[in-house]
UniProtKB/TrEMBL annotation:
<keyword id="KW-0805">Transcription regulation</keyword>
<keyword id="KW-0963">Cytoplasm</keyword>
<dbReference type="Pfam" id="PF00856">
    <property type="entry name" value="SET"/>
</dbReference>
<dbReference type="GO" id="GO:0032259">
    <property type="term" value="P:methylation"/>
</dbReference>
<keyword id="KW-0949">S-adenosyl-L-methionine</keyword>
<dbReference type="InterPro" id="IPR046341">
    <property type="entry name" value="SET_dom_sf"/>
</dbReference>
<feature type="domain" description="MYND-type">
    <location>
        <begin position="51"/>
        <end position="89"/>
    </location>
</feature>
<dbReference type="InterPro" id="IPR050869">
    <property type="entry name" value="H3K4_H4K5_MeTrfase"/>
</dbReference>
<protein>
    <recommendedName>
        <fullName>[histone H3]-lysine(4) N-trimethyltransferase</fullName>
        <ecNumber>2.1.1.354</ecNumber>
    </recommendedName>
</protein>
<dbReference type="GO" id="GO:0005634">
    <property type="term" value="C:nucleus"/>
</dbReference>
<dbReference type="GO" id="GO:0060047">
    <property type="term" value="P:heart contraction"/>
</dbReference>
<dbReference type="GO" id="GO:0008270">
    <property type="term" value="F:zinc ion binding"/>
</dbReference>
<dbReference type="InterPro" id="IPR011990">
    <property type="entry name" value="TPR-like_helical_dom_sf"/>
</dbReference>
<keyword id="KW-0804">Transcription</keyword>
<dbReference type="InterPro" id="IPR001214">
    <property type="entry name" value="SET_dom"/>
</dbReference>
<keyword id="KW-0862">Zinc</keyword>
<feature type="domain" description="SET">
    <location>
        <begin position="6"/>
        <end position="240"/>
    </location>
</feature>
Amino acid sequence: MTGSIEGLERFDSPGKGRGLRVTRAFKVGELLFSSRPYSYVLSVNERSCYCEFCFTRKEVLARCGKCKKAFYCNAKCQKGDWPMHKLECSAMTAFGENWCPSEMARLVARIIAKKKMQKDRCVSEKMLLIGEMQSHVEDVDNEKREMNEADIAAMHRFYSKHLEFPDQKGLLTLLSQVACNGFTVEDEELSHIGTAVYPDVALINHSCLPSVTVTYNGTSAEVRAVQDMKPGDEVLISYIDLLYSTDDRNNRLRESYYFTCDCQECKTKSKDKAKLKVRKLSDPIEPDVISNMVRYARKTIREFRLLEMCDQSLEKMGAIFDDTNVYMLHMMYQAMGVCLYMKDVDSAITYGEKVLKPFTQLYPPYSLNVSSIYLKMGRLYMVMERYSMGVSALKKALAIMEVVHGKDHYYVTELRKEITKK
């Protein structure tokens, strides 16, 4: 890949293994490269909203005549998707409501099919990169091991008609590789669309001070600079949500990717004081009280909560934590999502207004999380006919999206139209 893309090269990154670095300067917002996926799968929840083949979002799509569950832009897209869709089409018809492989199982099944197709032709560079992807099969905990075994059972049940599987060890290795190297494809509001494997993008290492961000244009991943880069700089993305404190970020990295970050932010913990701010009370809060509340907050935010439970948790944490504390922000953002699901726009706006300013202060510049919340709030204001506030929020979202998605991206051009209509 990198040999044919001007300005990039692979190298051995000290302590990280392989990596990518730039061989020329890149400016903020500049596209480093675009990558087609080795394999990908649309989320079941997004069927009828997106084309199964090209991930184009459309109001009217044509349905597969056999299974009636896959949707396409046209006959060309349907034909292009058939080598992958045929793995599922007859099974969905045969099993009906009992057809229930996870998204991970569906993606791995497609990777196995793609490997077989390529072996029948020739060995491609992408296939070699798939073989190089990191695997931590020996490090998975019992919960992940049980999930992997359930996925293997589902693949044998739903895909055996079309696929010959590796042995148990081979399947576990592949599942681990995809878990560590797969990408969640998201829309402009960071809603989940599907999952994909991009061997080229998987070469990029993590930092809590990323130099690039990854966005999606159809099924393609686009890598753009969010910092000015000079020749020799390593290309770095964030694998996780950067809102949280250093300890939390590294706990998440160890749980999912089996390493600890040693970037400058993790060494200095310069933002931790702001992220873990506690209330100013007449009597100082004892350290053990804060520690206990942190443990409670960590446990709480990992679990889905109904709105009443979100409110209860916020009340309990609010006795100790400032409203700008990241645990409070997470719970308020989650409550906002529940309100949106319940179509309670007023309450969603109330929660959104509480998280908006802290998000802009705690996330890095040109953050997708910040553009997403501006976008959500702008559209909510429009629904409530608060047009000036809506346009203002949408314009702030647009300014970030023009950098991270590119000025010609479909999401950006559609947002410009959305703004000018108001």
